[in-house]
Amino acid sequence: MEQRPNYITPAGYAALRGEYEQLFGVERPALVETIAWAAGNGDRSENGDYIYGRKRLREIDRRLGWLSKRMKAAKVVDPAQAQDRDRVWFGATVTIADEDDAERVLTMVGDDEAEAGAGRVGWSAPIARALRGSTIGDLRRVTLPSGEKEYEVIAIAYPAG
């Protein structure tokens, strides 16, 4: 099965990299030191520092593995370099309006940097898939968990390049 590219903005990639470096270079070494200290205190079966430390170390190692895979699969795309600025593509900030003229502003970003509350929608989200390639004035129908909605594209913007 062919895997889709993991598109991500330069800022999103920098955030993943920063988290990786923080976990690997700061948190993990400090935790290993704490575990070593706790192990030297004797009985490990009732040693909270040791038990919690081992559990947290497994969580950090799991997260480091996930971050490593995501960064290797990442295809960094700078939206400021977009060629076709008249259509909605990766990195576009889109203003849409629903049937009740309620407007929303969404930015199409990588799935790893999506945050719906901040208006950043993952590239593979249903609304992002529906808006791909649309131009100002286009109507797009989206099937959401709350039902089907129709949106009109009001404005499209890209970061300055």
TrEMBL record:
InterPro entries, from UniProt?
Answer: GreA/GreB_C_sf (IPR036953), Tscrpt_elong_fac_GreA/B (IPR028624), Tscrpt_elong_fac_GreA/B_C (IPR001437), Tscrpt_elong_fac_GreA/B_fam (IPR023459), Tscrpt_elong_fac_GreA/B_N (IPR022691), Tscrpt_elong_fac_GreA/B_N_sf (IPR036805), Tscrpt_elong_fac_GreB (IPR006358)
Where is each Transcription elongation factor GreA/GreB C-terminal domain found?
A: 84-158
Q: Name one GO molecular function term.
A: translation elongation factor activity
Q: Where is the Transcription elongation factor GreA/GreB N-terminal domain?
A: 6-76
Q: Tell me the superkingdom of the source.
A: Bacteria
On whether Ubl conjugation is a keyword of this UniProt record, the answer is: no
Keywords annotated in UniProt: DNA-binding, Elongation factor, Protein biosynthesis, Transcription, Transcription regulation
| A Pfam cross-reference name | GreA_GreB_N
- The question of whether Transmembrane helix is a record keyword is answered with no
Family statement drawn from the similarity comment of this UniProt entry:
Belongs to the GreA/GreB family. GreB subfamily.
Q: Which HAMAP family match?
A: GreA_GreB, GreB
Instruction: Write out the function statement from the record.
Output: Necessary for efficient RNA polymerase transcription elongation past template-encoded arresting sites. The arresting sites in DNA have the property of trapping a certain fraction of elongating RNA polymerases that pass through, resulting in locked ternary complexes. Cleavage of the nascent transcript by cleavage factors such as GreA or GreB allows the resumption of elongation from the new 3'terminus. GreB releases sequences of up to 9 nucleotides in length.
Protein name (record): Transcription elongation factor GreB
Provide the organism lineage as a comma list. Answer: Bacteria, Pseudomonadati, Pseudomonadota, Alphaproteobacteria, Sphingomonadales
